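S.,

Sequence below, as promised.
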Amino acid sequence: MSLIEIAPPGFDVILDIAYARADNFTGKAIYRRAAAYLHVDAAERLTAAIELAASAGFRITLFDAFRPSEAQWALWNHTPDPDYISDPRKGSPHTRGVAVDLTLSSSDGAVLEMGTPFDDFTDRAHHGNTCISAEAQRNRMTLLGIMTAAGWDRYDYEWWHYQLFEVERYPLLGDDALTEGLM
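The prediction came back faster than expected:
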């Protein structure tokens, strides 16, 4: 199965690949390069989300997409919390190429306030949390509306994570699924 690279100009997204930098929750870079890939089905859904966001005056900033199983193990070994990190033995929607971690940005690229940063592993990051500002609640609901309308499913504990429905029908993939790996 081939994965499609998600990058401008083919995809009007802002790439901010968190695991290619050391300023993620692990404190070190997991990927050796900043790139994003998705299964063709997920890429089609992302295109729909990009178009819906643009029609409302927003852009999508992408933190992560396909995550090789080797990277999933690195995250799990650092933080083995199944509420926030999928057990690599079971697989993750990311390791299947059918999940995205993202946020909304204004048309000029400024990230909207969402109440917590990406990868905040607390209750404040859950969908429907009312302990965040009204502005952050509105922004999360806008993101949820865009992603839902584009055909994505959400993960209740992470406002930034969306995945295709029925993820189990997609195979787990390692870094060797890419011509030029991320690891």
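The domain at 4-177 is CATH 3.30.1380.10 (Muramoyl-pentapeptide Carboxypeptidase; domain 2).

Coffee later?
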